[in-house]
Design brief:
With about 525 residues, the protein is of the alpha+beta class. It has 3 domains: about 5-270, P-loop containing nucleotide triphosphate hydrolases (Rossmann fold, 3-Layer(aba) Sandwich); about 280-375, P-loop containing nucleotide triphosphate hydrolases (Rossmann fold), CATH 3.40.50; about 395-520, Alpha-Beta Plaits. It has a 7-stranded mixed sheet with strand order 2-3-1-4-5-11-6, with helices on both faces. Strands 18-17-23-14-15-22 form a 6-stranded antiparallel sheet. The chain has a 4-stranded antiparallel sheet with strand order 7-8-9-10, with helices on one face. The structure holds guanosine-5',3'-tetraphosphate (G4P).
Amino acid sequence: MDTLHEIDRRRTFAVISHPDAGKTTLTEKLRLFGGGIRTAGAVKSNKIKKTAASDFMEIEKQRGISVATAVMSFEYDGKLINILDTPGHKDFAEDTYRTLTAVDSVILVVDSVKGVEEQTEKLMHVCRMRSTPVIVFINKLDREGRPPLELLDELEEKLDIRVRPMTWPINMGSLFKGVYNLHEENLYLFKPGKTTVEEDRILVKGLNDPALDTHLGTDANRLRENVELVEGVYDPFSVEDYRAGTQAPVFFGSALNNFGVRELLETFVSIAPRPVPRPTNTRFVDPVETTFSGFIFKIHANLDPRHRDRIAFLRVCSGTFERSKQFLHVRQGKQVRFTSPYSFMAEKKTIVDEAFPGDVVGLYDRGDLKIGDTLTDGEELEFRGIPAFSPSIFREMVNMDPMRSKQFHKGLKQLTEEGVAQLFTIKNGNRLIVGTVGELQFDVITYRLEHEYGAAARTQPLPYTVARWVTADTPAALEEFMRYRDRNIVWDKDDKPVYLAESPWVLNSNIKDYPGVTFHETSEFKTAVQGRA
Ligand code: G4P
């Protein structure tokens, strides 16, 4: 098999959105248009539904189901598309942040009625940190949404990216007639309730074609004015800027009505980057290198407590992953071999013999693999860019049964290694703090500690809302800060000091008061002075 050709045709991405904007619907429709599924409904049934916190077991079950959709692969126009699934539930946002480290680009779905929402901003912030290329799909044009120009302004302002509309909508809601493709200069007419994937393209020869008037009536002139305005305001589309993550092409459509999905997919396959080089602690790894490397970005526990095995998801970064071949597990410095790795083509889990850069492989693991671990053909390098992000809810975990202390510690360590939450310790003691992005995780942790490890635990609320990894210009400056803020300092899993603040306001005043200290948003940064005495 020609490896270069295989790399060249891979497109690995994620669809992201604020919950309810239409991520699940669009993902499903992309697969429908791409021929990856025959009927809609397959992805939908895997969605983590909006469920009360007390129903977390139901969510865990759904998360279990969603293992099957961790990655959805299909072929379209000669390209091999890998869509990495991200949980829609906001309490699992950290899963999504980590998945974003394993993609080469994203499609961001925005609800035309609601515009840019909180989660949209957070997700885009993570994409911007890594300069991930973004295509925006403004969804639900069949509803009375906000004016398109207002939405575009909001995107630019809140997401800190230049936008370039690729299509322009003709009305919205009950009067929605379709979109004009600014690039192809074609008209696409909207038919509500469309369930098929046939073409809805009307060939017109640009804006002056009288066919526009025939199809749109009086709306044709307004479209002409709008397009003139848009062309004057927005820079032309540039593939280079898109790939550099500085310009986002924008499409308008309605995923539910199969409208706008084909153009999105066609543009995506023609502009989205193939697997890109990735930074490690020693050098950049190019996908075309012949030696294998990859990293673990997600771990899923077996829901059956009698089986402790887990599934680790590996993103292949360079070379070829081969079944049963020996690889170096860099952190542990030992050789590992996987006899039944699987991939996710055509809605089925199938054992794979080989996988290429851009692919995701599921590996059975008995507890050796951690999120962020690197596997290689022998080179001792570790991929960067799988940082921990600041949690927003912190609680102390209290062991209720002193006889089960070992199980309590082991359980917490393993669950946090799986990425359920982050574990911090308070210096000079055994006190453990868990940080999460959602309340739900505490229910998941206490339930799983009890059922899988036989350890009873309760949680004690703490007043913090933000974490910052701290370094300083000099050891003395760091020491002074940590002495003064002793009560707010905890240590993360790698023994890095972390400052917990009660509010962004408190954080900002500390930033002002301690100019020699740097407060890092994530656990990964180029080190200045850090460490434990
Ligand atoms: P998410 O994954 O981002 O959370 O969103 P999801 O696709 O589940 O969509 C959220 C809701 O929005 C769903 O309705 C879905 O049917 C609806 N939706 C998606 N695309 C469109 C669209 O283009 N137009 C309109 N009008 N609605 C759209 P629901 O009632 O929550 O779920 P369901 O009962 O339809 O499954």
